[in-house]
Every structure is written in C-alpha cells, then in structure tokens.
Amino acid sequence: MAIDARIRELGNRHRNLDETIQQEMTHPSADSLRVRELKQQKLRLKEEIRTLEARLN
Known about the structure:
- This is DUF465 domain-containing protein.
- 88% of the residues lie in helices and 0% in strands.
- The protein is mainly alpha-helical.
- The chain starts with a helix and ends with a helix.
C-alpha cells in the first residue's frame, strides 16, 4: 500500500506542476528557463510513477 500512496502523491505533484506550467505560459513575459525546468521536473515525476506502477504489476 505504501507504493500506491506514493504514486498518488507523485500524481498530485505532477498535476500541480502541469497547472504551474500552464499559468507560467499564459504570461507574456514567461521565463522560458523556468518553464523548461518545470517540464523536466514533471517528466522525472512521470518516470518515477511509471517505475512504481511497474513494481505493482
């Protein structure tokens, strides 16, 4: 069950990062470096989620 909880936590963080990225991109003066870093964080979370899901199967 600890893995399930971790997956949910990472999923929430992934969604929050997605919202943050969308908000950042709506600004005319969006910081492209910040957006890139946020996207990289989001990708790392997605990869960790996939790894954990694979352990459940």
